[in-house]
């Protein structure tokens, strides 16, 4: 019995002494370091865009020529008059463009927007038929335009998938006025509308959001200004020609951009490398 107890005690002592020795030779695998991610390289890419907007335009006054005959009936003297007021209603437009994203912070594009017809109304005051009595006349027309711009944008960084931006554009607009006429029943006043090219510029601000790794939703505000020009022609029964003082437009815009290649800022980060865990031997 004592021999058995003695053997058990010796076995326990041996296990206690040799356990740490064997444990020291066992490898302890440390947890692998986290993978290192990096964004795709800043490589430019071509994109196309489509936009729709609602805009409200203001006409900066309308001036027109008048003609009077002196008492000897030998000289026609031109004069200038202005509309009492001029209002241009809101309207819609459709646009398209092609652009190039240079890097994460700069892109540029060429855009064309067609403004569907907006209603115009105004009023003039003058004399008719040699009478000294002043008579008011209502004026109606419609305006449409094709706006062509070369634009540049500064993207201000991406926050939770949203990229705010500011931009500016310069170009031209082809403005078309329909016939200007008095809508009063029985009125005969009609002046043919004019169409012409004019200088234009725009200022933009908005934000974009990644829908997929290639499709971006774009929403924003654009202020555009078209310089003044000829609005209607001369008519022997009334007056003219007439000139608008310029068209300022406030636009609320929305659209989509599709980028064909390069990094548009929407691609998910890629794993640069995945460190392998290495066994570490403790002593």
Short description:
By secondary structure, the protein is mostly beta strands. Helix content is 8%, strand content 60%.
Mean pLDDT: 82
What is the CATH topology? Porin
Q: Strands across the major sheet, in which order?
A: 3-7-8-9-10-13-14-17
Structurally, the number of domains stands at 1
Query: Which CATH class?
Result: Mainly Beta
* CATH architectural type: Beta Barrel
The shape is rod-shaped
Determine the number of helices (DSSP H or I, runs of at least 4 residues). Answer: 1
Task: Find the count of extended strands (DSSP E, 2+ residues).
Answer: 19
Main sheet characteristics:
8 strands, antiparallel, barrel
Radius of gyration: 38 Å
Helix content: under 10%
- Structural class computed from helices and strand pairing: mainly beta
Terminal CA distance:
40 Å
**What is the N-to-C order of secondary-structure elements (H for helix, E for strand)?**
HEEEEEEEEEEEEEEEEEEE
Strand content: over 45%
Low-confidence stretches: none
Describe this structure in words.
This protein is mostly beta strands and 283 residues long. It has one domain (44-271): Porin, CATH 2.40.160. The protein contains 1 helix and 19 strands. The chain has one helix at 2-24; strands spanning 27-29, 36-38, 45-59, 62-69, 76-82, 85-88, 91-103, 106-126, 135-155, 162-177, 180-181, 190-191, 195-210, 215-226, 229-232, 242-244, 247-259, 270-273, 279-281. An 8-stranded antiparallel beta barrel has the order 3-7-8-9-10-13-14-17. Strand 4 (62-69) and strand 5 form a beta hairpin. The longest helix has 23 residues, at 2-24. It is rod-shaped. The chain starts with a helix and ends with a strand. Keywords: Signal. Pfam families: OMP_b-brl (PF13505). Residues 41-260 form the Outer membrane protein beta-barrel domain.
